[in-house]
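A student in our group prepared the protein record below, which I am reviewing. Here is the record exactly as it was handed to me.
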Amino acid sequence: MTEDTRHKSPKVEGEGSYTAAREYDQGAEKTAKSGKVPQKAREAKRAVEGKEGADLARAEAEGKRHSHGEDPAPKGKK
């Protein structure tokens, strides 16, 4: 939680948390601007192809079990 959101009481929280969405967006922007994306992508590829691969695949499958599917909007469907 950032300093500015820690002390404010948001009006809508829970599913659709504005605070969490804002913090995620700020973190994603910071990461993108850091210039470390190619390095982090290589690290992730090594993890998936290495010893951690099976654990990561199990974690992904578990997450998908709880999913309601892909959001069709990014694919142009409505």
Summary: The longest helix spans residues 18-34. The chain has a mean pLDDT of 84. The radius of gyration is 17 Å.
